[in-house]
Write a structure and sequence with these properties.
By secondary structure, this protein is α/β, with parallel strands linked by helices. The chain has four helices and eight strands, in the order E-E-H-E-E-E-E-H-E-H-E-H. The longest helix has 24 residues. The protein is globular and about 45 Å long.
């Protein structure tokens, strides 16, 4: 059995309520809700793979719309004891999925301005979201493989918040098609 995970109900709008071989988990938006929900699910169920779907903002001008596998995640809303941006006091600076793909920066706020994008790009990320780091870290603690598929919803610049509301349904349909193609469901 696989666990299909999304943060926001809108990201699953194109998906059937029942998908053979998958159970569903809606975590809520942000690192803490994502970590909590996935931890509970993994304590209560046995899964061969976690498959995360959702949206991400592009912070690299070379990243076009489409679906991207996530290879690794960093946090963009933390600082180490020495003040180093992107370093957490006790968690690893980078967590990996084991897949080929993009590096995503996770933080508990919606990135929508050029200065934030500049700082986050300096960490080596090409996309931003609000859950991937937490989901990868929890999956690692339980030893369950995780695949994260992100649909680009916006350019993470001024006005991105309003844009997300307009494009999330399109992204859900793209993610649904990708899941059907990869998993035959």
């Amino acid at each position: 059995m696989k666990l299909l995970v999304a943060a926001h109900a809108s990201e699953l709008i194109a998906f059937e309520a029942e998908i053979p071989g998958f159970e569903r988990l809606l975590t809520g938006v942000g690192k803490i809700p994502a970590a909590y929900a996935l931890t509970r699910a993994l304590c209560e169920g046995d899964y061969d793979e976690i498959v995360v779907v959702g949206t991400a903002g592009a912070i690299d001008d070379d990243v076009e719309g489409g679906i991207y596998d996530i290879a690794a995640a960093i946090q963009h809303d933390v600082k180490g004891l020495d003040g180093t941006f992107g370093e957490h006091v006790s968690l690893p600076s980078r967590v990996e999925t084991g897949s080929e793909g993009m590096v995503i920066a996770t933080g508990d706020h919606f990135v929508d301005d050029a200065e934030a994008v500049r700082l986050i790009r300096g960490l080596g990320a090409r996309l931003v979201d609000m859950e991937s780091y937490a989901l990868i870290w929890v999956a690692q603690q339980f030893g369950v493989p995780i695949r994260i598929l992100r649909a680009v919803s916006d350019r993470a610049q001024d006005g991105a918040t309003e844009l997300w509301d307009d494009v999330v349904e399109r992204c859900s349909h793209e993610l649904h098609a990708e899941i059907r193609a990869r998993y035959g469901v």
